[in-house]
Amino acid sequence: MFHNVWILSASSIFESVGSRKKAFIGCVACGGVTNTTSILTHGGEQRLTEQKTVTERAPSTRGNIPTNTVLIGQKPLMAYATAIVMQINSGSKELSVKARGRVISKAVDVVEVCRRRFFDGKLEIKDVSIGTEVLGEEGQTRNVSTIEIKLAKKA
């Protein structure tokens, strides 16, 4: 998979390697990293002369989490809403939205934005499960609330 990558602030990412300079550029679209070598300095400006293609990042550490599950975290609300819309539009009939702690309210907001704005009544809530996870080590345990909202596309 190839993506266009742009260097916005070249001086902050260059690293001297002997007589050559090397830059590591991350791709926002897929999380891949490219290694750009042979950087020339000309007239006070740095320009690229050779660029290798973007390589895919190793498989994420989602472990045994199903592909039809969206985990809510610290990203903006619309990032998760977009993920839900893409998952449903790719043919998935059911989807699970999971959150814990402070982002439970964001999970509810994401589901409501998708139901009301993007799917306009064509997405229904099948089930809502709440629970508690115990986090931490012995002596320093704490309870964290969890929510799982199961969505289904109406036929």
General form: elongated
- Give the mean pLDDT: 75
Give the CATH class of the largest domain.
Alpha Beta
Q: From the alpha-carbon coordinates, what is the Rg to the nearest angstrom?
A: 22 Å
Series of secondary-structure elements, N-terminal to C-terminal: HEEEEEHEHEE
**Mind telling me which CATH architecture of the largest domain this is?**
2-Layer Sandwich
CATH topology of the largest domain: Translation Initiation Factor IF3
Helix content: 10-25%
Class of secondary structure makeup: alpha+beta
Count of alpha/pi helices: 3
| Oligomer state of the chains in this structure | single chain
Total E-strand runs:
8
CATH H-level name of the largest domain... which superfamily?
Answer: Alba-like domain
Distance between the termini: 34 Å
Task: Describe this structure as you would to a colleague.
There is one protein chain. With 155 residues, this protein is an alpha+beta fold. It has 2 domains: 10-51, no CATH class; 69-153, Translation Initiation Factor IF3 (2-Layer Sandwich), CATH 3.30.110.20. The chain has helices at residues 10-13, 77-89, 104-118; strands at 14-17, 20-26, 33-42, 45-51, 69-71, 94-100, 123-135, 142-153. The strands form 2 sheets. Strands 1-2-3-4 form a 4-stranded antiparallel β-sheet. Strands 5-6-8-7 form a 4-stranded mixed β-sheet, with helices on one face. Helix 2 packs across helix 3 (104-118). The longest helix is centred in the C-terminal third of the chain and has 15 residues, at 104-118.
